[in-house]
UniProtKB/TrEMBL annotation:
Belongs to the germin family. GO terms for cellular component: apoplast. Residues 10-146 form the Cupin type-1 domain. It comes from the Eukaryota. This is Germin-like protein.
Length: 152
């Protein structure tokens, strides 16, 4: 089991071509996702892969957001044995809504799917995205941007 003692309460153990050279040219990879009670796999995207998620243990709320201009949210409650597909490149997430630990296995349609965690990319970039750009984008005071950036 992965260590879920962190700020988001989840742990992703990836098996891509970087971890297993035998995946080279096969166009597949896997990830094990462990969740503490209430843990989340924060909103993220895979720029090079569609993801098929299977719940092994527990109950997960999952969802993805369609692209502009609609930005429509699709969610579903999943139980042990349920499967859900996250289309390539769309922002998606999972949350453990059960009382115990949850476990899911994700199959991805690329040996190197990539992952962009939205909050980390926006508020934890190196160097930082200018505070005035983020303040205007999110329509908040610069102090709020600074506070969020300090967490990343």
């Amino acid at each position: 089991m992965g260590n879920t003692s962190n700020d988001v309460g989840s742990n992703v153990t990836a098996v891509t071509v970087a971890e297993l050279a035998g995946l080279n040219t096969l166009g597949i990879s896997l990830a094990r996702i462990d969740f503490a009670p209430g843990g989340i796999n924060p909103p993220h995207t895979h720029p090079r892969a569609t993801e098929v998620l299977t719940v092994i243990e527990g109950s997960l709320l999952v969802g993805f957001v369609t692209s502009n201009p609609d930005n429509r949210l699709f969610t579903k409650m999943l139980e042990k044995g349920d499967v859900f597909v996250f289309p390539q490149g769309l922002i998606h997430f999972q949350k453990n809504v059960g009382y115990g630990h949850a476990l899911a296995i994700a199959g991805l349609s690329s040996q190197n799917p990539g992952v962009i965690t939205i909050a980390n990319a926006v508020f934890g970039s190196n160097p930082d995205i200018a505070e005035d750009i983020l303040a205007k984008t999110f329509q908040v005071d610069i102090k709020v941007v600074r506070q969020i950036q300090s967490k990343f």
